[in-house]
Amino acid sequence: MARRGGRRRLGLLACGTLLLAGCGSAEPDRSAAAPTEPGPTATRSFAPGAAGVGDSYFPSYGNGGYDVANYTIKVRYDPETDKLTGTTTVRATATADLSAFNLDLAGLTVRSVTVDGAAARHARTDDELVVTPATGLTSGNGFVTEIRYDGRPAALRTEALGEGGWLHTTDGAIALGQPESASTWFPVNDHPSDKATYDVEVTVPKGLTAVSNGVPKGKSTAGDWTTWRWAEGSPMASYLSMVAIGKFRVTTAEHKGRPVFSAVAAQLPEGGAPDRSIARTVEVADYLESIFGPYPFDAYGGVVVADDRIRYALETQARPVYAASFFRRGDNTDVVAHELAHQWYGDSVSIQRWQDIWLNEGLATYAEWLWAEHSGSSTVQRTFEQTYAAASGLVWRTPPGKPGVENLFGRSVYERGAMTVHALRLAVGDTAFFTVLKTWAAERKNGNATTADFVAVAERVSGKKLDKLFDAWLFGTERPPAPKVK
């Protein structure tokens, strides 16, 4: 996630304010996992799954007792009435013997729920959908849940992080936000620790475009409605899902055998800075690939939206979303580099818990510094020195490895996170450092990880003990001494 648009510059580091807060029934399909042989019924003890994954920062986010393999989401949205009608099919595997389980769903009305084709009882508790299947779900077995729902989707608001989720716009809607947004338009296990693949169909009035994640799978029109189809075949954290509906200027191409699909809000001047900047997406991605290793997904692209409520960029998987405000001062490939770096760090390698968000933002900010050096506008060392000198007391008092919910997207996570990365580079040398980056991306591809995992990789690759370095830069509350250039 990048800072809000409208940057003042420190070298090429953006220093603006952060966003506090980027159908039909199916036969049972148990392909999500091979069935296990159940023991005698009498020895089973079925219980409800937890209403949360236990993340200390957001205890109610996500749900326990199952692991999702795939979401098939089919929604129809009418901007004129702001009504959404949907059917979402969730293919998952039970990780405990479940008598009931929860899904996150905000605001919408549930009309019916089935589990493995049989009607299931359902109830709502705040933003939770509680599903009680006709029979218990045995640990290790796959199951399929289908939920039909409708209503007027609404944004989510939290005191510390602001607004995210489904936003009705003048010509459509945008579903976007971090740390949560998905639950405003489909039922979901809404935590990055449970990644899944996605198949999305969005039906909208003819003449509008509906953009989502991954590979475009075509569109079809029937009467006054057009259905746009998308597939993200790599595991994706739920907050990285997105939909943008409206009038867009669409550009398509192919690069290295992958589709490139970009869309710019039609009300923005054609050929302007937004078009020019995201047209360089594959150029920037190829440069980052030379540093981080192979690009991790099956599609490229970007979306530029023109809505004053969105003043940030978000690394939505395979198709980042950028606020138009990032391009008001002209071309801006810095933010493109930031969001594309997230495709490796944040999207392919995802955090296991929200406390470790610096792993995403510190590495993505450092990618901006690398891109600035590559493009000849600054050097990484100069940007580090300027950032170090200008960092406020709050940056040093807030440990990026444990920022707290109130500072989850604060300057320390971005700036001190990037400075931590540079301190590591100076400590281990360029050869080991760039090997660490590629190893991290390769070994953790499509998975989740923690700060401790990153430290372990850095120590293994470099052959050095690095606990003091990471303790000072990630967890200390005072300014560490500036590392010396060797």
TrEMBL record:
<keyword id="KW-0862">Zinc</keyword>
<dbReference type="Pfam" id="PF01433">
    <property type="entry name" value="Peptidase_M1"/>
</dbReference>
<dbReference type="GO" id="GO:0016285">
    <property type="term" value="F:alanyl aminopeptidase activity"/>
</dbReference>
<dbReference type="GO" id="GO:0008237">
    <property type="term" value="F:metallopeptidase activity"/>
</dbReference>
<comment type="similarity">
    <text>Belongs to the peptidase M1 family.</text>
</comment>
<dbReference type="InterPro" id="IPR050344">
    <property type="entry name" value="Peptidase_M1_aminopeptidases"/>
</dbReference>
<keyword id="KW-0482">Metalloprotease</keyword>
<feature type="domain" description="Aminopeptidase N-like N-terminal">
    <location>
        <begin position="70"/>
        <end position="240"/>
    </location>
</feature>
<dbReference type="InterPro" id="IPR042097">
    <property type="entry name" value="Aminopeptidase_N-like_N_sf"/>
</dbReference>
<keyword id="KW-0378">Hydrolase</keyword>
<feature type="domain" description="Peptidase M1 membrane alanine aminopeptidase">
    <location>
        <begin position="328"/>
        <end position="473"/>
    </location>
</feature>
<keyword id="KW-0645">Protease</keyword>
<dbReference type="InterPro" id="IPR045357">
    <property type="entry name" value="Aminopeptidase_N-like_N"/>
</dbReference>
<keyword id="KW-0732">Signal</keyword>
<dbReference type="InterPro" id="IPR027268">
    <property type="entry name" value="Peptidase_M4/M1_CTD_sf"/>
</dbReference>
<dbReference type="GO" id="GO:0008270">
    <property type="term" value="F:zinc ion binding"/>
</dbReference>
<dbReference type="GO" id="GO:0006508">
    <property type="term" value="P:proteolysis"/>
</dbReference>
<feature type="signal peptide">
    <location>
        <begin position="1"/>
        <end position="26"/>
    </location>
</feature>
<keyword id="KW-0479">Metal-binding</keyword>
<feature type="region of interest" description="Disordered">
    <location>
        <begin position="26"/>
        <end position="48"/>
    </location>
</feature>
<dbReference type="InterPro" id="IPR001930">
    <property type="entry name" value="Peptidase_M1"/>
</dbReference>
<dbReference type="Pfam" id="PF17900">
    <property type="entry name" value="Peptidase_M1_N"/>
</dbReference>
<protein>
    <recommendedName>
        <fullName>Aminopeptidase N</fullName>
        <ecNumber>3.4.11.2</ecNumber>
    </recommendedName>
</protein>
<dbReference type="InterPro" id="IPR014782">
    <property type="entry name" value="Peptidase_M1_dom"/>
</dbReference>
<feature type="compositionally biased region" description="Low complexity">
    <location>
        <begin position="32"/>
        <end position="43"/>
    </location>
</feature>
